[in-house]
């Protein structure tokens, strides 16, 4: 093996090591960004009514509607709305959020279905 072949082999090993490290970092970042926070709709109310999430990160909300009727997750603060059929689950992505309080409600049962996301 001459010197050029030896250098190329070393460069290839370094490139493989760098790509592997980058893949591990990227996959752990994706997993952290997609950690689900669960909201349950039951008896036309959100549970928990106050959900604390980390600020500065993309949030995955898993909204499970246990009622037999549909509900609409609505939030002007988060600029999101999504109809969730009865006895089903929907996923809603929000953020990254600045620290603060973000209200949401169920448009079909607005008097009882109220909640807030607290980013801190």
Tell me the number of strands.
9
What string, H for helix and E for strand, traces the elements in order? HEEEEEEEEE
What would the average pLDDT be, to the nearest integer? 85
Number of helices: 1
Report on the structure:
The protein has 120 residues and is of the alpha+beta class. Helix content is 26%, strand content 42%. It has one helix and nine strands; from the N terminus they run H-E-E-E-E-E-E-E-E-E. A five-stranded mixed beta sheet has the order 3-9-8-5-6, with no helix packed on it. The chain has a four-stranded mixed beta sheet with strand order 2-1-4-7, with no helix packed on it. A hairpin with a 7-residue loop joins strand 8 and strand 9. The protein is elongated and about 80 Å long. It starts with a helix and ends with a strand. The model has no long low-confidence stretch (mean pLDDT 85).
Which features characterize this protein?
1 helix, 5-stranded mixed beta sheet, 120 residues, alpha+beta, elongated
Question: What's the SSE blueprint?
Answer:
Layout: H1 3-33, E1 36-42, E2 45-47, E3 50-53, E4 59-65, E5 71-75, E6 80-84, E7 88-94, E8 100-106, E9 114-119
Parallel strand pairs: 1-4, 3-9
Antiparallel strand pairs: 1-2, 4-7, 5-6, 5-8, 8-9
């Amino acid at each position: 093996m001459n010197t050029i072949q030896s250098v190329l082999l070393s460069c290839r090993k370094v490139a493989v090591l760098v790509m592997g490290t980058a893949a591990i970092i990227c996959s752990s970042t994706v997993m952290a960004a997609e950690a689900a926070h669960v909201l349950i709709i039951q008896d036309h109310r959100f549970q928990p009514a106050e959900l604390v999430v980390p600020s500065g990160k993309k949030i995955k909300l898993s909204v499970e509607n246990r009622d037999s009727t549909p509900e609409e997750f609505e939030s002007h603060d988060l600029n999101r709305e999504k109809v969730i059929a009865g006895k089903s689950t929907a996923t809603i992505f929000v953020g990254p959020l600045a620290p603060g309080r973000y209200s949401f409600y169920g448009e079909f049962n607005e008097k009882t279905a109220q909640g807030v996301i607290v980013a801190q």
